[in-house]
Design goal:
The chain is built from six helices and seven strands, in the order E-H-H-H-H-E-E-E-H-E-H-E-E. The protein has 180 residues and is of the alpha+beta class. Strands 1-2-3-4-5-7-6 form a seven-stranded mixed beta sheet, sandwiched between helices.
């Protein structure tokens, strides 16, 4: 049987109570707020409630959050999300965040490949998309490497402080030979 969530470098798994510190660290990193919809810090109590109340069912929650674990030590190093899930249309948005010290090691690329394989092969999604600030070249490169293509520029789409920024809309559509 195929293992969807295990690669050579990382494995993806459901969020567990012991992930509270990792979530707290990532969600409360102000440098990431400009690329997310977070505008205030999250308390540990709020994050703990999220962990306890999430059904970890994409169809019920309309999202799925998975923990990225470095495989050799089974150490949590980041999160990968499916958000804005639209089951009728077979599409969702993706997001990924690694701890700063774990970036540039191939972990994000493999996690993204594992997630894409799962949603296209097992869940039979039609497409995934991502919105990335135009100057976030590392994320754009990561998505291009995973087979996402640029679909356009959303002008002045994202507000940071008092300024608006352009975003690249990227999309990956399930190959026709994999469609049912």
């Amino acid at each position: 049987m195929k293992k969807f969530f295990v690669g050579q470098l990382v494995r993806l798994r459901a969020v567990e109570p012991e992930d509270l510190e990792l979530l707290y660290q990532i969600e409360n990193d102000p440098s990431l707020w400009s690329i997310s919809n977070f505008t205030v810090p999250y308390s540990k109590a709020t994050l703990n409630d999220y962990i306890k109340n999430s059904m970890n069912d994409m169809f019920a929650d309309r999202q799925l959050r998975l923990i990225i674990c470095e495989l050799s030590q089974d150490r949590p190093i980041g999160i990968i999300d499916i958000t804005d899930f639209e089951p009728m249309h077979g599409r969702a948005e993706i997001g990924i965040s690694l701890l700063k010290e774990e970036r540039g090691k191939g972990y994000a690329a493999e996690a993204l490949d594992l997630l894409c394989d799962y949603v296209f092969t097992f869940l039979h999604f039609k497409q995934l998309d991502a919105h990335i600030l135009v100057d976030n070249v590392d994320s754009i490169h990561l998505l291009h490497h995973a087979g996402f293509v640029d679909c356009g520029i959303l002008k002045e789409w994202w507000k940071i402080g008092n300024k608006y920024y352009d975003m690249v809309l990227l999309q990956k559509v399930r190959p026709h030979d994999e469609q049912t």
